[in-house]
Amino acid sequence: MVTFKKVIGVFGLVACLSFGFTVFGQGIIRTGEGRNFYNNIFIPSNAETLYLSGSGARSMEDGSWGDMEQQTVDTFSRFQETLESQGWSLEDIVQVRAFAVSGSDGELDFDGFNRGYQQFFGTDENPMKPVRSFVEIAGLVVDGWLVEIEIRAARTPR
């Protein structure tokens, strides 16, 4: 007689045999590739993770902050410096969350964000792309910031 426990047991065995390499393998799996990001990233349980909190641009010498593209480039450059100082790289970034506001013209410059972002992901130097969220919000804590970004990085032991 087939019982629920036997069905679940067989399903579990099939799942382990079918997905065991993915679950117990060494690598991070990225699927659903879009132009600027992946839709899915599987991080195995043996991976190390690093979270960098919301960060934005530095003001320029004249006190201005720059446009969306400049702020995006500045922010990811700072992330890159931080990651590399700790032995990580941009390739390890698996998730990006960006919170953005409209500029003084009342327009949200999503294209400017993408231009800056594309200098760091999906390039010859860094072919990896993270999963990504881009959210328009009413305001940011720092006057002049157009975007605040947080990242999550993951890597498997080397």
Question: How does this structure look, described?
Answer:
- This protein is globular.
- The strands form 2 sheets. It has a 4-stranded mixed β-sheet, covered by helices on one side.
- With 158 residues, the chain is α+β, with helices and mostly antiparallel strands.
- Mean pLDDT is 87; it is low at 3-25.
- The protein has a single domain (28-155), classed as RutC-like (60s Ribosomal Protein L30, Chain: A, 2-Layer Sandwich), CATH 3.30.1330.
- The protein is built from 3 helices and 6 strands.
Topology:
Elements: H1 4-24, E1 29-33, E2 38-42, E3 48-55, H2 68-85, E4 93-100, H3 110-117, E5 131-136, E6 147-155
Parallel strand pairs: 4-5
Antiparallel strand pairs: 1-2, 3-6, 4-6
- Average pLDDT for all residues: 87
What fold name stands as the CATH topology?
A: 60s Ribosomal Protein L30, Chain: A
Kindly report the spatial arrangement of strands forming the biggest sheet: 3-6-4-5
Please name the CATH architecture: 2-Layer Sandwich
- Overall geometry comes to globular
